[in-house]
Amino acid sequence: MNKVKLGIIGFGAQGGAYAGFIAEGRVKNMEIGAICDIDPAKKEEAAEKYPDTPFYEDYIEMMESGAVDAVVTTVPHYLHPEMGIEALKRDIHPLVEKPAGVYTKQVKELNHYAAEKPNLTYAIVFNQRTNELYRKVKSIIDNDEIGDIRRTNWIITTWWRPQGYYDQSEWRATWEGEGGGVLVNQAPHQLDLLQWIAGMPESVYSKVKYGYQRDIAVEDEVTTLLDYGNGATGVFVTCTHDIIGTDRLEILGDKGKIVVDDSKTLTVKRLKKPEPEMNKSMNMEDVAKIFMGESTEDIYETEVEEFESVWGGQHVAVLENFAANILDGVPLIAPGSDGIQGVALANAIHLSSWLGKEVELPVDEEQYLAELNERIAEEKQ
Amino acid sequence: MNKVKLGIIGFGAQGGAYAGFIAEGRVKNMEIGAICDIDPAKKEEAAEKYPDTPFYEDYIEMMESGAVDAVVTTVPHYLHPEMGIEALKRDIHPLVEKPAGVYTKQVKELNHYAAEKPNLTYAIVFNQRTNELYRKVKSIIDNDEIGDIRRTNWIITTWWRPQGYYDQSEWRATWEGEGGGVLVNQAPHQLDLLQWIAGMPESVYSKVKYGYQRDIAVEDEVTTLLDYGNGATGVFVTCTHDIIGTDRLEILGDKGKIVVDDSKTLTVKRLKKPEPEMNKSMNMEDVAKIFMGESTEDIYETEVEEFESVWGGQHVAVLENFAANILDGVPLIAPGSDGIQGVALANAIHLSSWLGKEVELPVDEEQYLAELNERIAEEKQ
């Protein structure tokens, strides 16, 4: 086997894009093994575009057909864990879409199955982890270049969605269909990047707006205060109603500061001496100089780097890395088991807003599920 | 009377600077009437620099001497209200330093006295209100140019102070001496600007760090989530341990967005149509274009303006405006009664962190005072 035969479950926008990337030869170690969708219209579309590719309406049948070595789950969020589990049971490598699931209880079950099949490749589509900019940010933190983190702050409101987006399907932006709004659908990328780079908080307090600027049941705006438990704090803001869109990540460490603007411009300021040392040695005259706006070059060095990202390139990289792990054991960019972190964060943010108080992580899974089910029951009325 | 005779209470760094501005003729409608300080060393200093100016050790005596028409209170925060009241009682115009006081109960008393003497000029040194940049931001909001506010976000961590600053005096950074840290000493400027521009929140939740990076009893870091009660939210972050210092204010409205960087660069993005209209009329294709980074000029116009501020100029402007109100009834930039807002905000932020929950404004004054007194008692042990 020199190419992984991928089964694409769900032939919608995302699954269709993946099929395209592979068919165009952009994923050099992968081929389309089969396509699966429950929608008859998709069957016709697949037959037209990929006449030689087997099509299934039942994903279990596809998994058992021998046509695929691996699957990707471009289906509603709730289904990712169960499809992942069914794949693992049949020794099929699962690549799950983000988020790994809607609530940690189901994702934990998937992780549990995966842990019992360590020879299989279990990955998640956190394509942003392939972004060179964020890889560099992570390496700066991991290499202790800006020291211990004191504060993180991400305003990520570039996820503008009009009402028409939400009205596309009945299941969109409902508790039953998606299990949440911006936290579950758009922001999982940043929730993952944030925890990947800066670690998981120990507790969160959130103010979440449900149907604030859109006629939806779920959240279209989130403001969260993170407490990392070691003194460090953070702020995470996201929404789908800001058409001007801000994307600004700031991380303060005791040896420097990172600012990322628009996921394009990386500014790193490295202190000449750690802040605790400056704190001990500097006097009020030095403070006055800073206050009067005198040169800062004695204090820190500034490095600015611009990055470009090609649309689709990240997803191609994830698919290729997934196949490379299956074929050659190349380390995964995003192991599937990492997916639970973003889900745990989203669950905690929801729960904090529902309870109106700070919650510790991990949250009580049963409590979260009970609260979620209450909302599902309410929206049916 | 064509010049107001100012009595300077407290001849420290601030009071000394004011005396300098007036002596240099920078405040054209003001002269130094008298100087007051309880410190004998200051008496000598004043005698040397201003030999012809009467000096008092007792501010009441100065007020009753006939040498001053007005006073400014450059003294520890706790004393501002009582000195303001004593001035009003004697028909002396009070200009109080910020913050107006440490807790709202005492500031309310001052406001009450002032309300009974409407013919006197009662002002507060919110010098940042004279900053042309923030005046423009306020006018943009007041003129509804960016519509209804949906979110505010201010990271203002340019207040770096080393341990040596806190160790200057026994009273610094203690509950008894100052009644707080960065919220009471450095950030009152921004707390006032924020409420002046965007209004007061209805409730706050905060995470406040006491003695986090400095050996002090009071707070050196604050993260606050604001709820304006009408759907709008906000975030306010400040600290004294970030030597690189961020100063970034963002205000999102339903017709545009304002971003202020470093209190110098104002970026205003004005939507061609209000966001609610775009929400109704735009489809997924339009969203895709935005997502792919296509031109935004159909969506909004961007205006960038740079501002410069001269150090000291703001304080001169406040002094001059105060005198102009006394002499000619020119409207005040910062009426004294406005001072209570920033104090109310700071009190609420403290109280939320002490109680570990969201608190509504105005907070229970007695509860705040009891909690504050508990901390004063604790630090004495």
From TrEMBL, chains A, B:
<dbReference type="Pfam" id="PF22725">
    <property type="entry name" value="GFO_IDH_MocA_C3"/>
</dbReference>
<dbReference type="Pfam" id="PF01408">
    <property type="entry name" value="GFO_IDH_MocA"/>
</dbReference>
<feature type="domain" description="Gfo/Idh/MocA-like oxidoreductase N-terminal">
    <location>
        <begin position="5"/>
        <end position="120"/>
    </location>
</feature>
<dbReference type="InterPro" id="IPR055170">
    <property type="entry name" value="GFO_IDH_MocA-like_dom"/>
</dbReference>
<feature type="domain" description="GFO/IDH/MocA-like oxidoreductase">
    <location>
        <begin position="134"/>
        <end position="258"/>
    </location>
</feature>
<protein>
    <submittedName>
        <fullName>Dehydrogenase</fullName>
    </submittedName>
</protein>
<dbReference type="InterPro" id="IPR052515">
    <property type="entry name" value="Gfo/Idh/MocA_Oxidoreductase"/>
</dbReference>
<dbReference type="GO" id="GO:0000166">
    <property type="term" value="F:nucleotide binding"/>
</dbReference>
<dbReference type="InterPro" id="IPR000683">
    <property type="entry name" value="Gfo/Idh/MocA-like_OxRdtase_N"/>
</dbReference>
<dbReference type="InterPro" id="IPR036291">
    <property type="entry name" value="NAD(P)-bd_dom_sf"/>
</dbReference>
